[in-house]
Amino acid sequence: MVFESSAINIIALVLIVVSAIKIVVILVKPGAWVNVVKKIWSSPMMMSGISLILGAIVLYYLIQSGLTIVQIMAVTAFVALLMAVGIGMYANEVVGMAKKLLNRKMLKRMWLYIIIWIALLVWTAYALFA
Q1: pLDDT in tens, 47-102
Q2: How far apart are CA 36 and CA 30, in angstroms?
Q3: Measuring CA to CA, which residue among 72, 78, 33 is closest to residue 55?
Q4: At a CB cut-off of 8 Å and minimum separation 6, what does 72 contact?
Q5: Could you tell me the sign of the dihedral formed by the alpha carbons of 120, 97, 80, 53, in that order?
Q6: What does the pLDDT look like over 7-53, one tens digit per residue?
Q7: What is the sign of the dihedral through the CA atoms of 50, 51, 54 and 57?
Q8: Pairwise CA distance, residues 73 & 124, whole Å
Q9: What is the maximal distance between C-alpha atoms in the chain?
Q10: CA-CA distance, 26 to 45, in Å (whole number)?
Q11: Measured distance CA(115)–CA(119) in Å, rounded
Q12: Which DSSP string do the residues of 55-121 spell out, in sequence order?
């Protein structure tokens, strides 16, 4: 089998490589991964901006490849559920963090994130029912 260098395949390959490196580092030296996380998140606004730009690029290429927003959101549901499996064992910490973070001040800071999700949900609903 030969690797086909389509945008979706390249996105998947990047995910494989980054995930494999992360898993190996966590298995071999967990503390090293904490240092990586600290470095990556040392500038939350920059990390959010880069993530937003990369997310938009990935969404663009997914749509260009022929996937529909409904298919993309269905996969998003799958990934969210898979992530819940991993974070489920930390329920107390998650609930504590939610209590700490979810207030009016935090919601004002999350306006762009909330608008993006509303736009994606409306787009998906429109695609389903139009």
Answers
A1: 999 999 999 999 999 999 999 999 999 999 999 999 999 999 999 999 998 888 88
A2: 10
A3: 72
A4: 59, 62, 63
A5: positive
A6: 999 999 999 999 999 999 999 999 999 999 999 999 999 999 999 99
A7: negative
A8: 7
A9: 53
A10: 26
A11: 6
A12: HHHHHHHHHHTT--HHHHHHHHHHHHHHHHHHHGGGHHHHHHHHHHH-SHHHHHHTHHHHHHHHHHH
Handedness of CA 118, 88, 81, 33 (dihedral sign): positive
Here the tokens at position 42 are 């040392």
Q: Which two tokens stand for residue 99?
A: 């209590």
For 25, phi and psi rounded to 5 degrees?
-60, -45
DSSP secondary structure code for residue 4 in this structure: -
Sign of CA dihedral 30, 36, 37, 39: positive
Contact 127, 70 (CB under 8 A): yes
User: Do 61 and 118 meet the contact criterion of CB atoms below 8 Å apart?
Assistant: no
Q: State the pTM of this model.
A: 0.86
Please count the other Cβ atoms lying within 10 Å of the Cβ belonging to residue 69: 19
Between CA 125 and CA 130 the distance in angstroms is: 8
Structure tokens given for 43 = 């500038």
* Look-up of token digits 């529909």: 68
